[in-house]
Every structure is written in structure tokens, then in C-alpha cells.
Structure to design on (482 residues):
């Protein structure tokens, strides 16, 4: 868990990303930057579930970005419901709390995003392709027009950064809703001709003028499909994936198929985001930043070593979390729990074998060999071969000193086996020194040790992963003295 200062800093960085997004003057770059802001807020919410202000901004951005999705009615309604619940708790928290003058702009910004979300919720209910607009026509147009001109007509949005999002992200989507169906444009024209309230509404007049302008521009364009940003907004992820081929693909594919593809892509991305472990992501990012500094970090090497590293870290996760009876004989070295109350033997071969079995059930099952003899004058524990590119993983047991300095004694052997290949290796160290205070956590047990000999221009980078073995039952552990 980040401490209080770091959480505040993360939130301010997210709002900095938000301000940067709102400085964009086009839909696509603004939407892309807002998604990055959402990701930063989601990470902060995972680390600090009680961060209500982050939840408010995250829900509001979800409503704005979800307005252009094929499932906009459901997606925006869910975001609005989340925002309402969060805002209720947020106001309870601030009840009878005096807001200093310098903090009022932030409070006004929260209120503005909240009100915009309510407006979008009312409009999104009528954006579905199968919504016929036969009933309550006046109410439908009123809801859509209020969203279309939210940056001008919703008082709380004026002079706030939210107005930029409403103008650049919301207004074009409302226009798209009319352009995609001829009967909707006629619906608006009839209301302007016969409805006294709509006839004199500047928002309705502006919307019709915008639709006529876009229709005329599309007719005069020689490449109408490529220039039609409405379709790129409706199928955002498809447009991002297909690039220049998007226009032709949309022209040849039925709309219901495109909707299913778009929803399928968004659902997969949302699932990955939901199960993402932010601490694991931060660990991987730290390791990769170090590895990327090597001149050996080349195509054909970087992705392959990253795959091996990812699989090995997941092995470490398994070793840390394995249960009392899980894993059978392969994992008996991890805990000292035999029937006689004696510690079971912690054997290097058993440790080595368990790691190999995990690799066998991973995507690397076809490229691993173990106990490779006559490799650089020795014998490697595990050799992973991606064609001519090979990496070795050494498995060691340490019974006296498993600190960073203590494990450094083993890295030269792992580096030696890479003398004729890429300068990356892994050292798996089984820490048999775990005492009554428990083991060091996983994230402080993974680091990179550079090994550079005289005459070498650059070090070999050995990733050390320390795994606790022969541990006591957790309920027997006691904290270290203060």
C-alpha cells in the first residue's frame, strides 16, 4: 500500500493527465489521453479503495467515454449509478467540513463532472440503434439537446475544464446518433417545424445546422468513409486496431457484426484491467526499465526473455502462496509440516524439479531442457532455447545468508553460461534461512544484479528471485523486536 503522500501524488498526477487531455482539440487524441487518465485512477483505486475523489473522476470519465460505445445506454447508466453512490458518500464525508477558498475550484470541478454525468445518463438512454423514438419525442429531444450543448447550457460546466470534454467528446456523438439514422434527422426537422418549444431553441437550431454541415462535407469528400469520424467513434477499438483498413472493413461488414466485435474487444480489455495486479505491473515495469538499458535488449531477445521472466515470477507467486497440502510432494520443500513435527528435507533437486514442472505447463513447454552438460565447462540447471537465443536459469539453496550481498556469490555462474549469448540470466534462490519472523515479501525479493568482468564493455544482467523454503506455520510467527 502506498503511503498517504504517495497516494495524494498519484491522484494529482492523474488530474495532470486529465488537464493534458482536455487541452486536445480533437476527439481521438482527447479520448486516448482520457483512457490513460482512467487507467491511472483505476490503479490508485485498487491501492486505496477509500479514495472517493478518484472514484468520482473515474466514473465520470467512464460515462463520457462510454457514450460512443455500442452499449452506451447500459455503460453510461452503470457509470452514473456508481457516481451517484460515490458522490453521496463523498458529501457525507465532507458534511459540516469547512472548505477553504483554495480548495473550492476542485470541489466545483467534481460537481461539474457529476452534473455532466447525469446529463449524459439521460441522453444515453436514447442512443441505442434499436431505440425507435416513437414515444415521448419531446422528452427525448430535450435530453439529447441538453447533452449536445452541455458546455453552454449546463450552468455548472461554465468556466471549468469539463466544458472542453463536453464540446469535443459529447457533441459529436450526439450528432452521430442523428446521422446514422435518416428517420432521426426527420424527427428533429419536424420538431423544429411544429413544436413551439423546440422551434425557438438555439440548441436545436445549432444541432440541425451541424448535421447539415457534416452531411454536405461528406458529400463533397472524395473519401467519405475514411473521413467519417462518426464511425471511428462508434467502433473506437476497431478503428485503433485496423488503422487505414478501417474504412474498407466497415463498408463491407454488417453493423451488428461490427457491434459484436467492438463489444468483444472492450469486454476483453475491461476483463484484463479488472484482474490486473498494480503491484505486479509496477514490479515488471521496474525490472524492464533496467533490462532495456542493455545493448542486448534487441528484437528476438527482449520479448523472449520477458516471457521467461514473467513465467518465473509467476512460479515465485505460486511458491509464496502455496497451501499446506497443495502441490503434493513437489512443494514439500516450501513448508516444514510433516506428521512428526519435524522439518522435512529441503532438497535442491526437489526445488529444481518443481520449477521445471511449472515451466512444462506454461507456454515454454517445448523449449526447455534441464541438466544440460558441458555448457561453458559446467552443467546448467535449466536452459531455455528460442532458436539460437538461449537463457539459463540457475536454482540454488542458501542456508546461511540469503541477503542481496549473500546471494551475489552465485550470479557469476549464471553469467558464465551466457558468455556466448544474450547478456541476461535468472538466478532462483531458495531461502532456507527464514526464521520465526517470517519471509521477506515477494516484491522485495526480486532484483537485478549486474555482472561485469575485466575486459567486458557491458555487464550481464542476472535477475535474482528469492523464494522462501522450509517455512514455519504462519500462526507460529512473531514480529521482529521494535
Amino acid at each position: 500500500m502506498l503511503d498517504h503522500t504517495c497516494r495524494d501524488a498519484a491522484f494529482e498526477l492523474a488530474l495532470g493527465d486529465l488537464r493534458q487531455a482536455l487541452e486536445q482539440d480533437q476527439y481521438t487524441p482527447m479520448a486516448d489521453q482520457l483512457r490513460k487518465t482512467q487507467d491511472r485512477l483505476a490503479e490508485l483505486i485498487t491501492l486505496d479503495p477509500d479514495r472517493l475523489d478518484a472514484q468520482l473522476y473515474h466514473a465520470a470519465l467512464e460515462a463520457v467515454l462510454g457514450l460512443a460505445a455500442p452499449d452506451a445506454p447500459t455503460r453510461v447508466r452503470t457509470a452514473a449509478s456508481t457516481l451517484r453512490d460515490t458522490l453521496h458518500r463523498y458529501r457525507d464525508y465532507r458534511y459540516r467540513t469547512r472548505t477553504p477558498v483554495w480548495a473550492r475550484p476542485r470541489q466545483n470541478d467534481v460537481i461539474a463532472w457529476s452534473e455532466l454525468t447525469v446529463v449524459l445518463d439521460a441522453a444515453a438512454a436514447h442512443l441505442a440503434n434499436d431505440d425507435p423514438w416513437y414515444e415521448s419525442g419531446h422528452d427525448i429531444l430535450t435530453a439529447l439537446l441538453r447533452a449536445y450543448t452541455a458546455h453552454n447550457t449546463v450552468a455548472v460546466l461554465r468556466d471549468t475544464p469539463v466544458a472542453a470534454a463536453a464540446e469535443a467528446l459529447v457533441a459529436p456523438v450526439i450528432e452521430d446518433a442523428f446521422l446514422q439514422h435518416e428517420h432521426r434527422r426527420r424527427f428533429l426537422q419536424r420538431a423544429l417545424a411544429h413544436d413551439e418549444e423546440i422551434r425557438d431553441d438555439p440548441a436545436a437550431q445549432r444541432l440541425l445546422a451541424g448535421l447539415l454541415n457534416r452531411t454536405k462535407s461528406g458529400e463533397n469528400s472524395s473519401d467519405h468513409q475514411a473521413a467519417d469520424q462518426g464511425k471511428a467513434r462508434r467502433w473506437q477499438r476497431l478503428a485503433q486496431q485496423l488503422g487505414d483498413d478501417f474504412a474498407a472493413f466497415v463498408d463491407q461488414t454488417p453493423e451488428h457484426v461490427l457491434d459484436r466485435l467492438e463489444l468483444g474487444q472492450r469486454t476483453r480489455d475491461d476483463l484484463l484491467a479488472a484482474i490486473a495486479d498494480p503491484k505486479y505491473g509496477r514490479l515488471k515495469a521496474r525490472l524492464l526499465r533496467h533490462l532495456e538499458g542493455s545493448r542486448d535488449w534487441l528484437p528476438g531477445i527482449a520479448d523472449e526473455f520477458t516471457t521467461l521472466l514473467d513465467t518465473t515470477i509467476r512460479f515465485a507467486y505460486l511458491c509464496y502462496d502455496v497451501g499446506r497440502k497443495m502441490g503434493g510432494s513437489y512443494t514439500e520443500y516450501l513448508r516444514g509440516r510433516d506428521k512428526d513435527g519435524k522439518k522435512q528435507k529441503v532438497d535442491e533437486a526437489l526445488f529444481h524439479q518443481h520449477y521445471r514442472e511449472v515451466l512444462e505447463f506454461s507456454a515454454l513447454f517445448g523449449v526447455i531442457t534441464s541438466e544440460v552438460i558441458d555448457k561453458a565447462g559446467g552443467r546448467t540447471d535449466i536452459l531455455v532455447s528460442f532458436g539460437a537465443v538461449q537463457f539459463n536459469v540457475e536454482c540454488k539453496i542458501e542456508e546461511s545468508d540469503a541477503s542481496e550481498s549473500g546471494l551475489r556469490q552465485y550470479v557469476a555462474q549464471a553469467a558464465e553460461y551466457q558468455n556466448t549469448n544474450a547478456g541476461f540470466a535468472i538466478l532462483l534462490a531458495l531461502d532456507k534461512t527464514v526464521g520465526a519472523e517470517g519471509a521477506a515479501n515477494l516484491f522485495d525479493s526480486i532484483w537485478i544484479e549486474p555482472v561485469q568482468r575485466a575486459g567486458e564493455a557491458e555487464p550481464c544482467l542476472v535477475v535474482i528471485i528469492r523464494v522462501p523454503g522450509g517455512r514455519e506455520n504462519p500462526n507460529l510467527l512473531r514480529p521482529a523486536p521494535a
